[in-house]
Amino acid sequence: MDHDLSQTISLLTRTPAALDALLRGLPEAWTHRNEGKGTWTAFEVVGHLAYGERTDWMLRAKQILSNRSQPASDLPAFRPFDRLGQQRESQGKSLSNLLDEFARLREQNLAELHAFHLKPADLQLQGRHPAFGLVTLSQLLATWATHDLTHLHQLSRILAHQYRETVGPWSAYLGVLHCNGHSS
């Protein structure tokens, strides 16, 4: 499927409500347990998404747009993203705080993205990722939406994991209990 900015925005718009519907009001027994050593809780996932809204997607999009006249060889690299930054940023917050913060930040970021009035040619502008090298704005925006979907998938796994033993023999038919990794 080719990248379609309006469809990307449509997906990005839905994530806060999906998270809210899935997680708000659940007991901490559900939201503060993980899938095992080295995996995240639902609370950490929401914190990660909020942290990314503040420090990643739009900053990189703005960098690409502000460097549009530079040759690819002169493009500065994006600042590396701290994939665990939510650990310090979420301290002292409740899951409700994080859900509200994420929704507010996402709304602001999408309003700013819309205000860019991006044209198809803009989507081909490049930036320099510190690990991947040259990437396009189109790839960045498509990755933003896919990143959301990855974490929605992860949240389903985390929650289902809490009933891994409780479902008994039905676990053989529950694919979510057999999906490996991608927790971080």
From TrEMBL:
<protein>
    <submittedName>
        <fullName>DinB family protein</fullName>
    </submittedName>
</protein>
<feature type="domain" description="DinB-like">
    <location>
        <begin position="12"/>
        <end position="155"/>
    </location>
</feature>
<dbReference type="InterPro" id="IPR024775">
    <property type="entry name" value="DinB-like"/>
</dbReference>
<dbReference type="InterPro" id="IPR034660">
    <property type="entry name" value="DinB/YfiT-like"/>
</dbReference>
<dbReference type="Pfam" id="PF12867">
    <property type="entry name" value="DinB_2"/>
</dbReference>
